[in-house]
Amino acid sequence: MTETTYAIGDIHGRLDLLEQLLDLVEADAAVRGTAAKVVFTGDYVDRGPDTFGVVERLIAGPRRRGDSFVCLRGNHDDLFVKAVTTGEGLPDWAWTLFRHTIVSYGAGERDWKTSPKLRRHAAHLSALPLTHDDGVHLFVHAGIRPGTPIEDQLEEDLLWIRHEFLDHQPPLPRRVVHGHTIMGDDPVVTPNRVSIDTGAYRSGILTAAVLAGGQVSFLQARGPIDRPAVIREELLSASVHGRAVPPAIRQLYDAFLAGDIDLREMTERSSREFA
Fold first, then answer.
1. pLDDT confidence of residue 274
2. C-alpha to C-alpha distance for 106 and 104, rounded to whole angstroms
3. Cβ contact 58:40 at 8 Å
4. Which residues of 230-267 are buried (b: 16+ CB within 10 A; e: fewer)?
5. Any idea where the Calcineurin-like phosphoesterase domain is (predicted)?
6. Of 58, 69, 73, 79, nearest to 6 (Cα)?
C-alpha cells in the first residue's frame, strides 16, 4: 500500500485536539486509499490540561493497520525528562510549567519524584529521535542551523533555534517541517520550510501538514482556547522579563478567564497597559 505523510506540530497537552486531528488524518488517508505515516515534531507536554493522556495516546500508536507513528523529541519534552530524571539544568520557568504538568499524572509537589507514570513517560520521551529524514523533507522540532550539514547539526539547535533559521530564505539541504515557534492560527509555507505550530493551547487549533505528491495541504482540529493555560503563560512571561503585573492587568486576566472578553481584546488591552 502507498503511504501519505502527515506532520503534526506542538500538541502541548491538548489530547482533545489530538484525538480529533487523528480522526481527520485517518479519514483523509482512507479517501486517498493510502496508509498514514504520522510524524509528530515534538512538544507533547506542558501548558495544556492532559500531558499524561497525550503521551499515552502516542505510545499506543495508530489504530489502523498499516499506519505508523514517528515521534520526535521537542524542547519541552527534553525539559520534562530532565526534571524527572536529574532535576538539573532547568530554568525557573520550566519548573513552573512542570508543576502544572504533573497534575495530569495525579502527582503533586510532595510525591511526584516517586511517580511510576512520570518515570515511564520520561524514559519513553528520552529515547525519541530528534530528526526524521525522508529524503525530501527533514522533520525536526525547532529547525536547523543554515550552513551546517544535517549530520553535524547540534541538539541545541534542533530543539531551540529560532530566528537564525526562520529568517533564512535560501535553499536548505531538505525542506524542513517544524514546529516550536507559533506563527499564528495558520501554518506557514515557504520554499525551504513548512511551519506547523499553530499554538494549540492558545488558539484551540492543532495542525497537520499533508505531504503528498509534492504538494502541501493541511488538516486542522479546532476546539476551545485553554484560557487557564493562556493566563499561566502571560504571568510566566511577565515574571521572566521582570515585569510587575498591575491590578488593571489582573482584572483583564480575570475577565478573560471568566469568558467576558476574548483573547484578542485581552492581548490588545494588556499590551497598552504594559506599554
1. 67
2. 5
3. yes
4. bbbbbebeeeeeeeebeeebeebbeebeeeebeeeebb
5. 6-180
6. 69
Residue carrying the nine cell digits 485536539? 17
Distance CA 256, CA 264 (A): 10
The pTM (predicted TM-score) of the whole model is 0.95
Main-chain phi, psi angles of 137, to 5 degrees: -115, 145
Per-residue pLDDT, averaged over 13-24, amounts to 98
Q: Dig out the grid coordinates for 79 from the structure.
A: 525539559
Whole-number Å distance between alpha carbons of 203 and 226: 8
pLDDT tens, 224-272? 999 999 999 999 998 998 988 999 999 999 999 999 999 999 999 988 8
- Given a cut of 90, is residue 109 above it in pLDDT? no
Q: Which domains does the chain have, with CATH numbers?
A: 3-222 (3.60.21.10), 227-274 (no CATH)
Least confident of 61-70, 135-144, 229-238: 229-238
Using an 8 Å Cβ cutoff, are 25 and 220 in contact?
no
Q: Is 195 exposed, middle or buried (0-12, 13-18, 19+ CB in 10 A)?
A: buried
Q: How far apart are CA 261 and CA 253, in angstroms?
A: 9
